[in-house]
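Table 4 source record.
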Amino acid sequence: MANIAPFRALRFTAGAGDIDELCCPPYDIISDDQRRAFLGTNEKNIIRLELPREGENPYAVAGDTLKAWLESGALKQDDEPALYVYQEEFVAYGKPYTLRGFTCTVELQPFSAGVVLPHEETLSKAKQDRFDLMCATGCNFSQIYSLYDDPDRAVDAILDKFCTSEPAARFTDADDVIHSLWVVPDCDDVRAVCQLFEDKKLYIADGHHRYETALRYRDHLRAEGGETGSSDRVMMFLCAMQHDGLVVFPTHRVIHNIDGFDSMNFLKEAAAVCEVLPLANFEDIEPRLNAVYEAGGKAFGYYDGEKAALLTVSDLDQMKALLPNASQALRELDVTLLHSLLLERLCGIDKAAMAAGGKLTYTRDAAEAKALTDNGADACFILNPTRVTEISAVAREGEKMPQKSTYFYPKLITGLTMNKLL
């Protein structure tokens, strides 16, 4: 099954600056203005490597920059392999949480092997960008986020032992998330952790593009016939899906540029597949949705700039005719119900339209969804979060959810560990 191992991480040295000035959120949620702000604080922020923008060939510049930082000592590879226990402390939904897992390397295997399993569709443009960067740098700058099944919490019991000392790094980011890192050199407990994964599958929570890119990069180097280094492995953060600190935010949908869209007509047609309950205002949506979620039901909030409504799906059997070859797990996801019953049939947003873009915007912020709708979008749909058990159930079936079905919060910080492949 999963082949995990300690590795010699690349890490920033004290000479590069304070660690809180060198790390950043994942590249795909950083705007150009935010990028400039990070580099304005410290020119050696990891964003210069992870999201290159300088020069005619930014990827080549990133490769040269990595070499320069290694030569200057700003980055240094650890002397011996280790597991890197990583912890996030944060507040979500008004409650404090602590999430803990560890970063290691994982042997690359195709999804068809059934060991590392995806749960979402990916976009080819993003994969090409990551491939070009990997070819130019030969390095993983950010870790893939994956889950594993550990009902007895055997792995967490060992990780607890590693966190009794002061962490090697600890800082609070701009979102008040506290990040801590412990470096655990190879030892009996590390080997015990690795052995526990010999019968486990890994479920990608975030980083599908990076995993597929790592497979492509490995195959590219093999085809070239040159040095392949450790390209048969990829850096990955692993967390038990039973961990109390796991928080999944919903990703809301905003529709726009829908030909001939009429809200009254939409709600009339939606009533054929959903129970449509008018609400007094937008602010009533989330409390109503939460009540449905706690009861195990399926519903979406709807807002068109004036009218708000709760759309509840009680008849789940209607999905069998729409997706006859899909598993029950996939058919009954909130996002699948929304896309199949409403977005595709009533709004004309099928998979081709989603890939082309222009009609659907995603946001995890309900207030932003409302603002976009108030400022000209046709309507927005407010969703409940996807449960972790639903994610693993779909992955076990070998199926994929629609894009942007999950948002694990908080995102993993980039810059604490890197994985040099060549």
